Amino acid sequence: MFEIIRRRFLLLVTLFAITISACQVKAVEKVLILGNSITAHGPAPDIGWKGNWGMAASKEENDFVHLLEAKFKTKNKNVQVKYANIASTFEQKYWDFDKASLSKVIDGFAPDLIIVRLGENVPTGMLSTQSLEKGLKSLVSYVSQGKAVRVCITTTFWENRAVSDIIKKTGATARWKVVNLSGLSSKKGATAAALFTNQSVGMHPSDKGMRLIADEIWKAVARY
């Protein structure tokens, strides 16, 4: 009798271990962040910008990309994070984006997590005739090469309800993680307006704004 109970117990333990193993999600090893000037912008002395990272951050490690990278590395020190400004490649012409240029940007990088952090430069006048939802889904499909990947997408940092509503709808139908950044730019000190004389630079996130963006995204992807 005791032997039967022992065997049943061992069987239950084995089944439990198998179930736990099956439920475990593979840790993120490669992260691709696609965005615009908030993600990365090279030096532009004519407008008072000398950095080569997320525009208006005081230094590279203070932009949202590198803040996120640091967070990912607390979970996996070998994680690879690649990022790109695709404003001209995709965002400004999302209905007919430049696949050749995008391929050069990605350069064979095969992400298991894609973070799409853009929308501010979408021409709203085209929304009624060109589907942004279709464009976003095509972007992710192209970048992932049709493979199953985890995706996180954010609404706009600067208030833009028309674009943000489409982003939310797209994320819901595609079952992506959706991060709502609407309202962050209105928080005190969230933009760098007081730090730059050029308005186009100053409206970008300050160090505080970058931290707020990184924190909101991390809440959505930390479990990965």
Pairing-aware structural class of the strands and helices?
alpha/beta
Please give the count of helices. Answer: 7
How many discrete domains? 1
Rounded to the nearest angstrom, the radius of gyration is 21 Å
Cα separation of the termini:
45 Å
Overall strand count: 5
Brief digest:
This protein is an alpha/beta fold.
What does the model show?
This is Lysophospholipase L1. It comes from Olivibacter domesticus. GO terms for molecular function: hydrolase activity, acting on ester bonds. This protein is an alpha/beta fold. The chain has a single domain (27-221), classed as SGNH hydrolase (Rossmann fold, 3-Layer(aba) Sandwich), CATH 3.40.50. The protein contains seven helices and five strands. The chain has helices at residues 2-23, 64-75, 99-106, 132-144, 161-174, 199-202, 207-221, and strands at 30-35, 80-85, 113-117, 150-154, 177-179. A five-stranded parallel beta sheet has the order 2-1-3-4-5, sandwiched between helices. Helix 2 (64-75) packs parallel to helix 7 (207-221) and helix 4 packs across helix 5. The longest helix is centred in the first third of the chain and has 22 residues, at 2-23. It is globular. The termini are far apart. Mean pLDDT is 91; it is low at 9-24.
